[in-house]
């Protein structure tokens, strides 16, 4: 399979499209946690409960007009599950610990519904760029459609009931994936993160809680779900994200003004590494991709799409590399394959 053919199947719509503020905001995600009444939460339910929930959702899905597909987690190969995690379509928890889990995916992979993760249902929408309100609207449409057919656990005072108390209320987790090399290079991130936390938001790495901020990519999301409406949560997050965008733009302008030639040199050195390396590990690849993406945004490099960062940050993860190779790879083999894939992708960009 050629790289172009592989990418046509591997790259989700949110990875290859641009949205508002795409130079800094890579993607927007909205997730709603829901549970069905008459069944215990996944932390306490029986295997019969879990199977009944999957069967219920599967039957509901089969009778709908939506073009989606349901995959049962225990029927997937380990590599398939790993790829779904790397594409942000399922969580590591669902992939690793759910015997009776499942996921519903749209063809464009902009919507995924996890079944029997921490909650019975987790409705997730992914949009390119900064589109919090649009993604919430889409998630609410799906939520309304499902709630018309399922009896969700809801309390008049507390709101939607969830396995974890931190999700009670709206059950909403809104997050944006941001590329912040300017703030990182000007050493402002260490000051910014505590300030964001004090506003009731949280800063995480590329794969959420416990993950690293590879390639200067940070995930900003709300912590509070109780006591505020969905609209208030979105407005609060949007206000902070817009401030971060402004600070990142200022940091980039300062870098160009004070160290233009050094910054350009950094960008082209990283570009040289990516186009010539025969072996490259994850962290080095992520940092070089971040530098090149910054170079594209600042106009140093003009013949490469800025979506290259979105795509290659996913395509160079272990699961994708092994899927592209057609089987398991050792760590060294993955590093070799990663370098090859990056060279081929950049060459494909140049040819097109």
UniProtKB/TrEMBL annotation:
Gene3D superfamilies: Glutamine synthetase/guanido kinase, catalytic domain. This is Protein-arginine kinase. The keyword Cell inner membrane does not apply. Its EC number is 2.7.14.1. PROSITE patterns: PHOSPHAGEN_KINASE, PHOSPHAGEN_KINASE_C. PANTHER family: ARGININE KINASE 1-RELATED, ARGININE OR CREATINE KINASE. A motif (RDXXRA motif of the pArg binding pocket involved in allosteric regulation) lies at residues 334-339. Belongs to the ATP:guanido phosphotransferase family. It catalyses: L-arginyl-[protein] + ATP = N(omega)-phospho-L-arginyl-[protein] + ADP + H(+). It comes from Bacillus spongiae. ATP binds at residues 27-31, 88, 122, 173-177, 204-209. InterPro entries: Arg_Kinase (IPR023660), ATP-guanido_PTrfase (IPR000749), ATP-guanido_PTrfase_AS (IPR022415), ATP-guanido_PTrfase_cat (IPR022414), Gln_synth/guanido_kin_cat_dom (IPR014746). Catalyzes the specific phosphorylation of arginine residues in a large number of proteins. Is part of the bacterial stress response system. Protein arginine phosphorylation has a physiologically important role and is involved in the regulation of many critical cellular processes, such as protein homeostasis, motility, competence, and stringent and stress responses, by regulating gene expression and protein activity. CDD domains: bacterial_phosphagen_kinase. Appears to be allosterically activated by the binding of pArg-containing polypeptides to the pArg-binding pocket localized in the C-terminal domain of McsB. Residues 24-251 form the Phosphagen kinase C-terminal domain. Keywords: Allosteric enzyme, ATP-binding, Kinase, Nucleotide-binding, Transferase. It comes from the Bacteria. One of its GO terms (molecular function) is protein arginine kinase activity.
